[in-house]
Amino acid sequence: MSDNQPSNSLGGMIASLFRGKTTDDGTPSGGFTSQHKVLSGALLAAGAAYLYKRSKNKQAAISSNS
Q1: d(CA 11, CA 16)
Q2: pLDDT value at position 66?
Q3: Cβ pair 16, 7 in contact under 8 A
Q4: C-alpha–C-alpha distance, residues 51 and 56, integer Å
Q5: Is 80 exceeded by the pLDDT of residue 43?
Q6: How far is Cα 60 from Cα 30, in angstroms, rounded to an integer?
Q7: According to the model, what pLDDT value does residue 45 have?
Q8: pLDDT band at 1, cuts 50/70/90?
Q9: Measured between alpha carbons, how far is 36 from 43 in angstroms, rounded to an integer?
Q10: Which residue ranges make up each domain of the chain?
Q11: Burial class of residue 53, CB neighbours in 10 A (0-12, 13-18, 19+)
Q12: 3-class SS at 22?
């Protein structure tokens, strides 16, 4: 699969978010942009919220079984 075609898998889509843009000759054109930082922050916040809810639900289940 070439780099120019979008991926249909979730992993490929996530990887494409963090892949840097390239110039016409295939060389990378810079590192993290502000868009990458925003997307990274959003993914980090979503993961933290998920883990917090999961932990909270486990604690509630343990206390209700006692």
Answers
A1: 9
A2: 62
A3: yes
A4: 8
A5: yes
A6: 47
A7: 92
A8: very low
A9: 10
A10: 32-65
A11: exposed
A12: strand
Q: Are 20 and 31 in contact (CB under 8 A)?
A: yes
The amino acid that residue 20 corresponds to is G
Q: Is 28 in a helix, a strand, or coil?
A: strand
Compute the C-alpha angle 46/56/51, nearest 5°. 25
Q: What backbone torsions phi and psi does residue 31 show, to the nearest 5 degrees?
A: -100, -135
The rounded distance, in Å, linking the Cα atoms of 51 and 45 is 10
Note the pLDDT of residue 37: 80
Token code pair at residue 29: 């054109």
- Tens of pLDDT, residues 46-60: 999 999 999 988 888
